[in-house]
Amino acid sequence: MRQNQLTKIEKYTFAGSTVTRLFLQRNKIAFIEPGAFHGLNLSLLDLGRNEITTIERNTFSGSSIRKLSLYANKIEIIEANAFVDVQNLQDLVLVSNRITKITRDVYQFPGLKFLHLMDNNISKLSVADFEQVSHVRLLFLGYEDYLRRYESYLRESES
C-alpha cells in the first residue's frame, strides 16, 4: 500500500487482518484515528514519508508492533501516552521530523530497546528525562552516531 494517495487511516481499518508487516510509506497520510491498528500483530509498521504532524494518545492502542517507523513525516507533537498499550514495541524510529521536545512518557515502556531521534529540532535533553530508561540499549541522536550504530543494529537484528 506504499506510494498511493492515502490521506487518513480510520479506526479498525485493518480489523481481522493477519498481515505481519505493513508498509504505508510514501502516501499522504496526515491523520491516524486512535485504534486504526487495533488487533494487529506486526513485526513492522512503516509509516515513513507521509504528512503526519501529531501522534495522538492511543493512536496505536490495542496493537502489537515490534518496529514502528515514523521517519520523514512532519511530526511536531507527540501527545502523552501516544504509545501506551502498544505491545512488544522494541524499536521506535522518529528520524527526520520536526520534534522539538521529547518527554519521558514517549519512551517509558519496558520493551523499548532502540529509540531513533536524529535529524529533529530537539535542542535540549535533561538527565531527568532518561533516569528510568535503562532498558533502552541504543539512543540515536546524531547522524554520525546513527550511521555507526545502525550498521551494528542491522547485524544484530539479522541474527
TrEMBL record:
Gene Ontology BP term (one): monoatomic ion transmembrane transport
Keyword Transport assigned: yes
Gene3D superfamilies tied to this protein: Ribonuclease Inhibitor
Subcellular location: Cell membrane
GO cellular component: plasma membrane
One family name in Pfam for this protein: LRR_5
Primary location recorded for the protein, binned into one broad class: membrane
InterPro entries recorded: KCNMA1_auxiliary, Leu-rich_rpt_typical-subtyp, LRR_5, LRR_dom_sf
Protein origin, superkingdom: Eukaryota
Membrane topology, as annotated: Single-pass membrane protein
Keywords noted in UniProt: Cell membrane, Disulfide bond, Ion channel, Ion transport, Leucine-rich repeat, Membrane, Repeat, Signal, Transmembrane, Transmembrane helix, Transport
PANTHER family membership: GH08155P (PTHR46473:SF23)
Listed name of the protein: Uncharacterized protein
Originating organism: Ignelater luminosus
